Amino acid sequence: MDPRDKWRLRNNRVALLDIDTGEICPYLIQEGVLTPEDAERIGSKETSKDKTEALLNMLESKGSRAFQVFKDAIKSEIKREDLTKKLDNTDMSKMPARLRKEMKEMEDEDSDSADDGNVIITTTTTSQKRKKPVEGEEHEFKQKKKLFIGVKGNNNVVMSGNTITYNNTSRGSSK
Description:
Layout: H1 3-11, H2 13-16, H3 21-30, H4 36-43, H5 48-59, H6 65-77, H7 81-88, H8 97-111, E1 119-123, E2 127-130, E3 138-140, E4 147-150, E5 155-160, E6 163-168
Antiparallel strand pairs: 1-2, 1-4, 3-6, 5-6
Helix pairs in contact: 1-8, 3-4, 3-6, 4-5, 6-7
GO biological process, one term: regulation of apoptotic process
Protein name: CARD domain-containing protein
Organism: Stichopus japonicus (Sea cucumber)
């Protein structure tokens, strides 16, 4: 999860503790943010506040989509647009140094662009960097994750299902 979104969750934690997890967990499961096992772990907590704490803690480790899907759930399932506005209007100037450092590291990783002719494939949790990519080589990702691809020059990257194929179009080739 983006450090800014972690900060939004942490900075608004008290306001978010009123959320009934039973109303939004089905939506989060439907959208692939939580697993049924996650929902069971949340549901096993004793009090409503403990359940919400468990949900908020889990969300931080659920990838880049988790925060937006959580906000969508708040808005559509419990009709609390006031909470989504509160999250959106969080004062980022008070973000702790640790999260600022994490954000800078993510930005630095993203700025390691393909300036040197590399193809960079970055998911929300892993990054792979290959020097001199092999034309026609396929990379398969079995987990559903948000994917960012950076290429330089006359390159073509095609994503089909779970397969990513790189082709150098400067030589007029394609596969």
